[in-house]
Amino acid sequence: MKVVVIQGPNLNMLGHREQNIYGPMKLEDIHKQMEGFAQQNGIEIEFFQSNLEGEIIDRLQECMGEANGIIINPAAYTHTSIAIRDAIAAVQIPTVEVHLSNIHAREEFRQKSLIAPVCAGQISGFGPFSYHMAMVAITQIMNEVKAMKEAQQAQQAQQNLQK
Ligand code: DQA
């Protein structure tokens, strides 16, 4: 099973940008922690960061046939991008939205996510731990989808035998 982690604009600046909001941890250190969890759970993981909306959309589309789950922090595009929302809806891969800060406790323009309605769920406000929670959530979802597919296959095989 494979998870693709997509990081939006300015998240490459973590550890430097607005430390009072986002904390001191760098993006590569967050990714190392996620990699540890993935290894322990036998999950393949790949990371992608871009400051460009179109590149994020391209990466989402590439996930088709490649990823079983997506974790995305669309950063500022959370609040503006119908195109990223449409790409997530189009690929039909379980997706978890994640934020370091609690977007619902911040400026009014951050309190609305255009992305959340097409995601399995949103995790917001736990700093780098939000990503760990997203890993737990996506692992659970991927396991459920796998179990459901296996049950469907077993049922199909049973029906074929009865023909
Ligand atoms: C963010 C919240 C967004 O509002 C902001 O534009 C970001 C980071 C977060 O992780 O808390 O860049 O997505």
Quick overview:
By secondary structure, this protein is of the alpha/beta class. 44% of the residues lie in helices and 16% in strands. Strands 2-1-3-4-5 form a 5-stranded parallel sheet, with helices on both faces.
Percent of residues in helices comes to 40-55%
Major pleated sheet? 5 strands, parallel
Q: What fraction strand?
A: 15-25%
Radius of gyration over all CA atoms, rounded: 17 Å
> What is the CATH topology?
Rossmann fold
Number of strands: 5
> Which whole number gives the mean pLDDT?
97
**CATH class, please?**
Alpha Beta
Number of helices: 5
Instruction: Provide the spatial order of strands within the biggest beta sheet.
Output: 2-1-3-4-5
Detailed description of the structure:
The chain contains 5 helices and 5 strands; from the N terminus they run E-H-H-E-H-E-H-E-E-H. With 163 residues, it is an alpha/beta fold. It has a single domain, classed as Rossmann fold (3-Layer(aba) Sandwich). It has a 5-stranded parallel beta sheet with strand order 2-1-3-4-5, sandwiched between helices. Helix 4 links the parallel strand 3 and strand 4. Helix 3 runs parallel beside helix 4. The radius of gyration is 17 Å and the shape is globular. 31% of the residues are buried. The model has no long low-confidence stretch (mean pLDDT 97). The site of 1,3,4-trihydroxy-5-OXO-cyclohexanecarboxylic acid has 10 residues, from loops.
